[in-house]
């Protein structure tokens, strides 16, 4: 597994309720990481969305690992990437971290084809 070199990008617009946004985003990314890491050697990918209860704002995210990674390596790589959120993307409506072995992206607005993604298990 290679984590570096990596880069990040972010949406320049700030969120209105940072605490609620972070809570929903962290839960969503956690579910997606678990699902992607369980993928076989052909597909270590997951995409999904979650809606914040108070603001009713929906967040969209995807995570992906290269197919050569084990379940543990995929999980480790993505968890290492999301630990960069406070540095790269704090308070932002969207962000991404891209490394050689994994990447994630999240946004307030849809950025992938919702119809082509499988629903996550509850």
Automatic annotation (TrEMBL):
Xref: InterPro entries: GNK2, GNK2_sf
Keyword Signal part of the UniProt annotation: yes
Record protein name field: Gnk2-homologous domain-containing protein
Domain Gnk2-homologous, residue spans: 3-111
Keywords: Repeat, Signal
PROSITE patterns: GNK2
A Pfam family this chain is assigned to: Stress-antifung
